[in-house]
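Design review, sub-item: ligand-bound model
Attendees: FS, YL, KQ
YL presented the inputs for the N,N-dimethyl-L-histidine complex:
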Amino acid sequence: MAPAVDLLDLHPAPADMRQLVIDGLSRSPKQLPAWFLYDAEGSRLFDLICQQPEYTLTATETALLEREAPAIAAALGSGTLVEFGAGSARKVAPLLQVLAQPAYVALDISAEHLQAACTRLQQQFPAVPILGICCDYSQLEALPEHPLLSGTAHLGFFPGSSLGNFEPAAARDLLAQFRRLLGPGGQLLIGIDQPKDVERLEAAYDDAAGVSAAFALNLLRRLNRDLAGSFDLEAFHYRARWVEEHSHIEMALVSQNTQQVELAGRSWSFAAGEALITETSAKYSPEAFLELAASAGWRGSERWSDPAGDLSLHLLVQAD
Ligand code: AVI
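KQ shared the predicted structure:
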């Protein structure tokens, strides 16, 4: 039987959702933080998006990790692998298989997700020391004291191109935060989706089965439930479009008519055709990404890409 998994709960402070909603709906255009999409149903729908034929990011990155794991392991220094926002922690397995002395720490805000993912991984790799830390990694001052984190340099892992869901300034801050958390001499292996054919990109974020649309509309259901909202889901239409100027996909719910919505104790007006942006997903060329990384104190050391050049796994080292 696999040993019980070690879990640390740092009790992440529940973000003030009400205030964030008021701030987001007071903006023009209206926009809410992307993490609001991930309640239990949103997380389930996101896993389904990853299985849609149009959304190739997950399968491409997984295949790339499997193919290049030996080369990645050879390029990585020694240290504990620390995954930020591990979710179901499915992408780390090829690395744990080939690292000489693997040790793994998964960080995630959802305690249930973390428990399930770490337990499954521990069964798959009974000899690998595994630790789960329930926290908001973007707000963490330092990694907690623990034998698995006793060295100074750690190996960060941030797959899935999740950096793309942060606005450029927030993305830079997050990369700088990773640098602090990983310590001097730390390295970061990060998956970054690249710009590609617009039709393909728009289809990836608006699949024929309607899962992406359901994922976005679920946000309104969540707001109705958690903040006494009165959104009529039929009165909004999902739209995903490529915005060349920002090199990102913008996902939005477009109001079908002029309407008033009650939410968070206030009344909000929506004009016909007005968009509520649910999320953006930036795509970076290798050059653009390395420029962003450099502004956060990182330097590109290696890069692995799939044959079609859809996405890259960048290995970053600290610039000084
Ligand atoms: C989590 N993140 C990297 C996804 C993306 O591709 O931007 C979120 C997503 N939203 C809708 N489809 C996928």
